[in-house]
Amino acid sequence: MSEQDAAEEATTSDDGDADVDGEVDIEDAPEGVDTGEIDLEDVAGETDEDLVERVAESDPEEIARELAALRSQNESLESEVEELESEAEELEEKLKRKQAEFQNYKKRMKKRREEEQQRATEDLVSRILDVRDNLERALEQDEDTDIRGGVESTLRQLDDVLDAENVDVIDPDPGEDVDPSVHQVLANVESEEEPGAIADVHRPGYEMAEKVLREAQVTVSKEE
């Protein structure tokens, strides 16, 4: 076979076979497929032009390295997020424990105060009972017996109990000014005292730790 014959066999025949250049004949294209020439610029226009240009100009190995670096960075960020989430959970658990401990502390302090108050009340009542016992023994004496000395002694004992509890007596002298915060005026009476001044004390009052337990009841000299 001559070279001319070989060349002719290599060319495309009329029935649509491919030639040595690898071109496809329009007639051999499947039905419905556009056999026009594909333009790379058209493809790039449908995606990010900068990215397409960069990929087209970059070395495949360099792209692979960049992808590996991005993957590694992503894994590092994921690991950091996991650590932060773990830290947040740990802090939340610590906060819950501290809150529980604080609530338990408040309950313990409340119970302790109640117990201390109860013991203080019990101690006060015990000392008052001793005073009552002394009064009862005084009343058990014979009718002809002078019990004044015993009563006075019991009164001093009671005053000692009140003094130990920091209870002060509110017992103003006649002629003092009226203090509405600690004095209760029962009536206005004629007296030798200055008008508006205390004429007499009907019943003393008491205060404890600067708190008035009972006001002193007084009478006041009439205004002229």
UniProtKB/TrEMBL annotation:
Subunit structure: Homodimer.
Pfam families: GrpE (PF01025)
SUPFAM superfamilies membership: Coiled-coil domain of nucleotide exchange factor GrpE, Head domain of nucleotide exchange factor GrpE
Coiled coil: 67-115
Family according to the record: Belongs to the GrpE family.
One cellular component (GO) term of this entry: cytoplasm
UniProt key word Signal: no
Organism: Haloarcula salinisoli
A Gene Ontology biological process term: protein folding
Intracellular or extracellular location(s): Cytoplasm
Alphabetized PROSITE patterns for the sequence: GRPE (PS01071)
Molecular function as annotated in GO: adenyl-nucleotide exchange factor activity; protein homodimerization activity; protein-folding chaperone binding; unfolded protein binding
Protein name: Protein GrpE
Stored InterPro entries: GrpE, GrpE_CC, GrpE_head
